[in-house]
Structure formats: structure tokens, C-alpha cells
């Protein structure tokens, strides 16, 4: 069935069907498709990083950005802010490219491709990880997939087997969800201890002292070279798992660091994880109180600045098995209408 769907997506693209669907919208000057990426890379390039964060290969990303240049109107976050504030309207078929977390491939691959096609990407940075530290999902991946261990101990003291690929996959899924559902400091503390044991274990392929993320000199460079940088919290906690005081601190600290390091502070923000279940009314209220004009989620549909609350804007995620036809279909009004109906049904 998957192959059949992929074939239909490709047929829609080659026949011009996706372009026809793209044109069937009610243009109001405040609509924008917002794309969300984390990494653009090949799994073997940095084999110690969790490949689940790879949204496209370099070749796929190049193909996608070429499509945006051909059939859409790429805009910058400053264009979107102006339109949201009642200023100049956005052009029809506007699209904004955003990237989360600030991995090295932003400098190596994403920005050069965007520059080639006249696209100004927006990079959301967890400021506490700029040029240092390893994200928890990459630590967990290394412990499960790269260690020579047969078992690991969970935060609750349960011993779980990681002896086969299937077991590794299930444990990765389970523990990832447990960490997301727990207090991030408690989950991080347990994982930090496990990760330190892994680094001391002598397993082959251990990577020490490597920088997975851009440092501030590199962030200043990409900012000069055609990217915008904005806040993604300081330590990347899921906001529903921390107190209101901590939420406020995370937002203020991340924005203050960006202002100090880059000399500007855009009033935009991306929720870590970005799922509706993780964005509480308290978090939304605090985000707005802190002067954030546009806050982005991972609700997959087109953003309409005239209808969506500015603190709850959708973004369209991507993934490495997304072919170009499917990618294009997601950037059509039909897809957004279907998503709105699905989200409405799920909330009832």
C-alpha cells in the first residue's frame, strides 16, 4: 500500500495535479506554509546522532527547495511578522522554511542550498546547547544502538534487553516517551549517568568532545550569510512538564542570550516537541505575556495569520521517506482542510 501511495503522489506531481491543487485556495494575504526541519544529512555521516531527526537527505532537500523556488514564494520571518502586524500582505503561495536545534548540517548543507534558491531560513536554537552538550535523544540513541551492552537499566530500576534490532527500537520508543512524560531534570539526570557509563565503557565508535551543534561564532556567521535565529528555549524542556516560573525563565534566558550574542532578538518562538498535548493554556499565556508575537507548533497544516492565535501557529513536518509528490501535496489547501477536519474531530 505504501508503494501504491508513493506512486500516486509521484503521478500527481508529474501530471501537474499537485500544482492544480496548490492553486485552489482563497488567498487573503496572511497565509503561509511553514516547513519544519531538524537535520538534513545522511545517516552514516554522523552515525552517533539519532537518525530519526533526519528529515531529508541533502539531495531531497535540494529538490524540495528547488520546488519552492519554482512554484511558491519563499518569505522570511520578518515578512511574516510584518503581515501578522497588519503591514504588507504576504504573496500568494508564501512559504517559510524553519529549522530546529542548530545542528552542524545547518551550516554545511541547509543554508548553502537555501542561499542557492533565494530562501532565507529561520533557525530555532536551544541556546544552552549552542556549540556544546549532546541532546538527550542523541545520548539515548548512542546508549541503545552503539554500546555493546545487552541490557540497560531504566530510571525506575527495570532491566530491559537491547540484544536485537527490534528490541532496541522498542526500548528507544518507550524510553523516549518516558523521558518526555517525566520531569526533564529527573529524566535527564538518569540518562546522564547512563551516558557517562557508556562513554567509560570502551565500546567501539564512542565519540568524545565532538560538537554536534553550531557555536556562537558559527551562528553569527550564518546570521550574516542569510539566516535568522530565534528562541527555542534555553535547555529544550517540554513546557507542559515544567512550572510556569520555569517556562518564563526558559523563554527570557534564551532571548537574552540571543540578543547578547547576535545583537537582535526576534519576537518569535518554537515550542519544543510542538504537539498540541504539550502546549498547555498556561504555557500559551506565558509565551504571549513574554512578548512573543509568533509561536510555532508542529500541528501540520497551513498557518493563517488572520485566524490562528499568534501563539499557536502550525508547521508542516518533513521526513526522509517523503517523496517530492507527497511533499508538494502537503503544501496545498486540500491537505490543510483535511488536517483541520481531523484535528477538529480529535478534539471532540
Shape: globular
- Please identify the structural class as seen in this structure: alpha/beta
Secondary structure tally, helices: 13
The CATH architecture of the largest domain is Alpha-Beta Barrel
User: What gyration radius follows from the Cα positions, in whole Å?
Assistant: 20 Å
Tell me about the biggest sheet? 7 strands, mixed
Count of domain modules: 2
Into which percentage range does the β-strand content fall?
5-15%
Give the uncertain stretches in residue-range form. none
Classified in CATH, the superfamily of the largest domain is: Glycoside hydrolase/deacetylase
CATH class of the largest domain: Alpha Beta
What is the strand tally? Answer: 13
Order of helices and strands: HHEEEHEHEHEHEEHHHEHEHEEEHH
CATH topology of the largest domain: the name is TIM Barrel
> Mean pLDDT score, rounded?
89
* Quaternary organization: single chain
Helix amount: 40-55%
Distance between the termini: 30 Å
Task: Characterise this structure.
With 348 residues, this protein is of the alpha/beta class. It has two domains: 2-132 and 211-346, Glycoside hydrolase/deacetylase (TIM Barrel, Alpha-Beta Barrel), CATH 3.20.20; 136-199, no CATH class. The protein has helices spanning 2-14, 17-23, 58-71, 77-84, 105-116, 136-146, 165-181, 184-199, 216-224, 244-262, 281-289, 324-330, 333-346; strands spanning 31-37, 39-40, 54-56, 73-74, 94-100, 122-125, 151-153, 159-161, 228-231, 268-270, 294-296, 303-304, 316-317. Helix 1 crosses helix 12 (324-330) and helix 6 (136-146) crosses helix 8. The mean pLDDT is 89.
